[in-house]
Each structure stands twice: as C-alpha cells, then as structure tokens.
Amino acid sequence: MNELEISLGSKAEETPLIHVDHVSRHYDDGAVKALDDVSLTVRRGDYLAIMGPSGSGKSTLLNLLGALDRPDTGEIFFNGHGLSRCHDLDHFRAMTLGFVFQSFYLLPTLTALENVQIPMFEGPRGVRQRVEHARGLLELVGMSHRSQSLPMKLSVGERQRVAIARALANDPQLLLADEPTGNLDSKSGALVLDLFDCLHRERGVTIVLITHGAEVAARAGRTVWICDGHLSESPPARGQSCG
Amino acid sequence: MRFADVIWNNLRQRPLRSVLTIAGIAFAVASVVTLVSIARGYVRSSEEYYSSRGIDIVVMRAGVAERLTSTLREDYADLLKSVAGVDDVDGSLTEMVSLGDGDLVGIPLHGFRSGGTGISQFTVIEGRGIEPDDHAAVLLGRNLATGLQASPGQKLSIEGTSFTVVGVFQPANAVEGNTAIASLGDLQHLMDRPAQVSEFHIRVKSEVSSEHNLREICQSIEALADPTGQPLGLKALPTRQFVSGSTESKLMTAMAYGTSFIAIGLSLVGILNTVWMSVLERTRDLGILRALGWSRRRVIRMILGEAFSLSACGALFGVIIAKLAIQGLSMIDAARVFVRPELDGLAILIGGLSAVVSGVLGAAYPAWRAASISAAGALRYE
Ligand SMILES: Nc1ncnc2c1ncn2[C@@H]1O[C@H](COP(=O)(O)OP(=O)(O)O)[C@@H](O)[C@H]1O
Ligand SMILES: [Mg+2]
C-alpha cells in the first residue's frame, strides 16, 4: 500500500482491518496442528463470531490476532501492515487492541477502577486523566457504583463488565473476546452481549468474538467456523463430525 | 493510580513477607553501619588522641605494630632529641590494666614522664593534675571516673596496688574518656618494666611544615644507631599513618568490612528469595499485564521497584537499629572503651548503598524472568 492509496480514502477503506494470510500454527513439533493454512479477512466495523468445538483452534487464532503469539507460517496484516515486521508488539497490543477473556483475568489485588487503568500506563494519559477516563468507562459498562470493589467482591457478570471497561481503556480499534460469556449465567451473559452490541453500533468498534453458543453468534453480523484447525465460512453439516 | 501505587499494592498484599524481608535487610544494614562506625570511630579516636596533643611523629620498636608489644629503652630519648627538626621527645608506656577488685579489666593506663609535655596536656575538670613529686597517683578520664563513681582523694586499686585518684580529666573523645593516666615511673614500677617505654611522641619544630619534611625526620630517626654502630631498630611514622597502619586499626577495619560483606550477601539472598517467590506466585498476573500490553521494561521496573522499596525501608530501619545498638554498646563498660556513641557518615552511606545495590542485584534475575513470561503461555492453564 502506498501513501496515495491512503489519501484517496475510498481505496483505503478497502484495506481490511485484519487480513489473515495462509496462517498455520503447530504445537509439539508439528504433532498438533492447532491452525492449518487459515485465511480470514475482517473489515473495519465488522462484528465477527468464531464458532467451533473445544480444542479446534479458536483461542490459537485469537492469540495470533491479538499478537500474543506468532504464526509458524503465513502472515497477519493489521491495517495492511504485517505483524511480523512490527518491532513493538507490546505497544501495538496496548494501544490498538482490547482483550476480553472467558475468565476475566482481572488483577485480584486491584479495585475495579484500578484494573481499568492498568493498560493506560502504556498510553499518554497522566494520573488524573487515567482516573477520570476509567470512571467514564466504568459508567459506560454500568459499573461505576462498584468502582472501589475488588474483583472477589463482584459477581462474575460484574467482573466481565469491568474487564470490558479495561479492554476499552486505550480506545482500541479491535476488541477480541474469547468466550466472554462462557462463565456467565444467561442473564449476565445477555448483559455483556448487549454491551458488545452497543459498542459495535454506537462506537463502531470492530469485534471478533469466540463462542460456543449459536444464540451468541446470532448477534454477530457474520460467523465463521473452525474445525480441527481449518476455517470455513459455512457451518458443518448436521451430524457430520468436525473436518 | 500511579505506577508507585501498583508497586505499593504488590508489597501490601503479603505484609508479613514484606516486613520480614525488610527486617532481614535492616539487621544486615545495622551490622554494617555499626561495625564500620565502630572501626572508623576507633581510628578517628586514635588519631585525635595524638593530634589533640600536637604529636607529629610516633616512634616504636621496628617490627611490632602495636603499642602494647613495643618495648624501647627510655634513654633513647636523648638520641631522638639530637635529630634535626625534633623539638620535643616524650616517652610513654601503655598497659592494659584491671581496676578495682577486677570488675574492670582491659583499661588502657598511659604512663607519662613526670614534668614532661604529655602529662601536662590534660584538661583537669576535677581535683588536680599529676605533680612531679606524686607517688601512686592516677588521673581518670571522665567516663571512667563516672563508671567507677570515683572522685579525687579516693583510693583505687590498680592491678592489686593501691593508687590515689588525684583528678579527673576532660577527654578529647569517648575512647580517651575511658583511659587513666599515671606517671611513667609509677607505671614502670607497677608493671615491672623499669626504664622501658612503649613509644616516643615527637613534636617537631615549627619550621617543619610539610609532610615531606616529616618523612625525612622519620628516616633520620630510623637510621639512628648506638655508639657501637648497632642500629637502634626504631620505626618512626607520622601520626596519621601510624594510626591507620596499626594492627588494631587494620584488624577492626578488616573485621568490619568482612562482616559487612557477609551481612550484605545474606540480605541479597533474602531479597532474591522474596522476589523470586512473588514472581512465581504471580505468573498469571504478570502474564495478564503482558497481554494488556505492558512492555518488558515496565514489568522489570515494577519488580525492581518492589525490591528497591523493600531494601530502602530496610536501610532506613537498619540505620535506626544501628543508632540504638551503638548507643547501647557505648553504655556497656567492656565495649565503651573503643565505641564512640555516634554513627559514622561514611558507614551510613556504605550501609544504605549496599542494601539498595544488593536489593536491586538480588531482584535482577527474578525481574528478568518476570519479563520473560509469555502472555499466551501464562493465560493458557486455567
Ligand atoms: N501452547 C500450546 N502447546 C501445545 N498445544 C497447544 C498449545 N496451545 C494450544 N494447544 C493445542 O492446540 C489445539 C487448539 O487449542 P485452542 O486453540 O486452545 O482450542 P480452542 O480454543 O478452540 O478450545 C488443542 O489441541 C490444544 O491442546
Ligand atoms: Mg479456547
């Protein structure tokens, strides 16, 4: 991509936010092919659900998208730039991505308000701005009344909402969620999904979400399936085993 | 939330461990500060002992490094006086004696020649000084007099012989405050060392000003020979060199630094253990931080910050403990002879710096390991 294309706007919009180009990821010296020659394109503003049985490679794919791991072969492009060429993936993660995990991964010794501020240390905000921004985010997820609570004192649904506030700390371009409702009851799960809907609709955040549940995937604009490390755009036929 | 708050939060989570680590470092620092203070204080006191009397050169028997084992003939004084540049020669004998009914032992008793320069240089604050026609008279340093509850006119048994306390003198320092003074003749008689001294104190003429000239005089003294051409075997040193080169000074300094080294090694291992454990326990949390985009450098800074806080607190408390320890020691009869009741500035600096340096060194490896935790790996086992 050259400078001209960016300035032309219309063409720049065609540059996908993410392009996964023939990516493979093997473990245990190739014995486990967690991902095998996977290609995928996600455009800015997409809401994509990834479905698949346990152990099919969903988290592996999400870790690659989130620059937590590197592919063995192939390349992942973010805004047209290859991640393998990026020399500061930490900074990239901090400033462009937001993570939401199945087990929340809040820091147990910090309050909700403090947890939300953690990613901001890598950003430009000063102490006061960090606190203010974190308050705003907690309000956005409806958790401002529990800002001083430790994660232990919160219900699982509340924890996930705090985790979502934290994921938004540096105004990410992409939200990556790995089974965000997997540990939640249906009611708080629905609350979390409503929140995703709202972020997608009103803030234009691009979302890639992993899920087991069809009703969760139904909220997304588009769904892809992974089976045994292979990705397909259509669901596996009924009764047919994976792959 | 400040970065420092994150560090503080981590330390606060395991209060007992943090406190114990701080205590360990504090005791290490305390031992460093106390021992180095004592050693340096001892050297300084000795220096003051001589310099406050205007002594420029100390002459001893060659081959011995301590006053106590140095033996010289008293009549060498005449030969010394003939050396160019020498103004005054004063022989002195020092013995460690026991006082009273053996309740105080190892008290330095200095014998000075009656009518000489040395014996007249004490500032008497009670009673009077030792006069030439006194017999079995003793002058006590103030601290010693207080400890013995002795006042002028009272009898005092020294090595089993009865002496009369004639006065109390104002010491130049804590060490001197615990010494006693007698006439050279009395001490020679008491210790059965007739016509012997352990050292000569030399004051040079006022025109001798440079260190260089002092050394020339020392050389001339060392070259002295008796009428038969036999060398006298003298060792002459400018005061400062004499003090820092004495076996006692060297021994105390070596012991102080040696013990300090061990103490600091122990605190380094303590920090390493504490930080290492806390990194292992927090593998998942550290993985989360890395996943959220914290750089390796920030993780390292956090871990080193924790270690630095622990060791800085340890250093602070260590200095406080040292202050108390040295005050306590200076109140014990057996120790106060050589313990100045004050902390040495350099000792505090050495103690504090070594705590902080050992803290950061001890935490370096755990911090590096913490920064190497892979986010994907740490978050997988759940
Ligand atoms: N770090 C790893 N080392 C070895 N095998 C792994 C590792 N991570 C994932 N795998 C394996 O890769 C496959 C896909 O895992 P994962 O992506 O976690 O599946 P999913 O998230 O779809 O349940 C599984 O067989 C899993 O055991
Ligand atoms: Mg998974």
Report on the architecture of this protein.
The complex is a heterodimer of chains A (243) and B (382). Chain A has helices at residues 3-8, 10-14, 58-65, 89-96, 112-117, 127-140, 156-167, 186-203, 214-217; strands at residues 18-27, 32-42, 47-51, 73-78, 81-82, 97-100, 174-178, 206-211, 222-227, 230-232. Chain A is an alpha/beta fold. Chain A has a single domain (11-232), classed as Rossmann fold (3-Layer(aba) Sandwich), CATH 3.40.50.300. In chain A, the strands form two sheets. Chain A has a six-stranded mixed β-sheet with strand order 6-7-8-3-9-10. A four-stranded antiparallel β-sheet of chain A has the order 2-1-4-5, covered by helices on one side. In chain A, β9 and β10 form a beta hairpin. In chain A, α6 packs across α7 (156-167) and α7 packs parallel to α8. Chain A is globular, with a radius of gyration of 18 Å. By secondary structure, chain B is an alpha+beta fold. Chain B folds into two domains: 3-47 and 249-380, no CATH class; 63-232, no CATH class. Chain B is 54% helix and 19% strand. Chain B has helices spanning 3-13, 15-51, 76-81, 142-148, 174-177, 184-190, 211-222, 239-245, 247-281, 283-291, 296-329, 333-336, 345-371, 375-380; strands at residues 57-61, 72-73, 86-99, 104-112, 123-127, 137-141, 155-158, 161-170, 180-183, 196-197, 199-204, 234-238. In chain B, strands 1, 3, 4, 5, 6, 7, 8, 9, 11 and 12 form a ten-stranded mixed β-sheet that branches. Chain B has a two-stranded antiparallel ribbon with strand order 2-10. In chain B, β3 and β4 form a beta hairpin. Chain B is elongated and about 95 Å long. The model of chain B has no long low-confidence stretch (mean pLDDT 90). Chain A binds chain B through residues 63, 66, 68-69, 88, 90-95, 97, 99, 101-103, 105, 107-110, 113-114, 117-119, 121-122, 127, 130-131, 166, 170, and chain B through 1-3, 5-6, 9-10, 13, 284-285, 288-296, 298, 374-376, 379, 382. Bound molecules: adenosine-5'-diphosphate and magnesium ion.
